[in-house]
């Protein structure tokens, strides 16, 4: 009988809880990845992954679990907490180098209560239409937010990157987008979610080419950046720290 994996979102914001039950193996690993990315895409302040009723079928399946959880843990500054893992799973998770930032907790209810006591990061969300005016709107929003957060050292670079992220949606995705700007732990984070599943690629334009430098610029000006694919589109995200602005 084929194995089954059930991934049920218990809540999304401000703290997301994803309940995972059943058997994780080579056939069900993709479903876990889809569910984790979906929970991260709404950009909660923290993601709690309740695996108390999850059975990891074999070492290969655990590699799938580790790759899903650990490789998405850097998505824009959203801490992931694995709750209720058995001792073997916790030990195996801790042994994966990419999982150094992944927290563990014995009980998800206690972890949720603890997350609720932590001050929420500064965050602004806005929906934008895929029109050229969106670039001017997002620059104005970044200017105001950095001034309000007293982080003027970020303003010029953040406004430039935000413009490029939004312009890529206007030029290529042609869908309504959600722009999120956050300030946490000395970092500025930005993310743009759109409805196109076409993943962007940084090009290598020639000296005489008029365009193609947008994502290359984002890469060079960011501490880190990436693309989170989801079932209904993607999220392009970036982190900034003062030393790179």
TrEMBL record:
GO terms for molecular function: protein serine/threonine kinase activity. Keywords: Kinase, Serine/threonine-protein kinase, Transferase. InterPro entries: Anti-sigma-factor_SerPK (IPR050267), HATPase_C_sf (IPR036890), HATPase_dom (IPR003594), STAS_dom_sf (IPR036513). Pfam families: HATPase_c_2. Residues 132-226 form the Histidine kinase/HSP90-like ATPase domain. It comes from the Bacteria. PANTHER family: ANTI-SIGMA-F FACTOR RSBW, ANTI-SIGMA-F FACTOR RSBW-RELATED. This is Histidine kinase/HSP90-like ATPase domain-containing protein. It comes from Actinoplanes cyaneus.
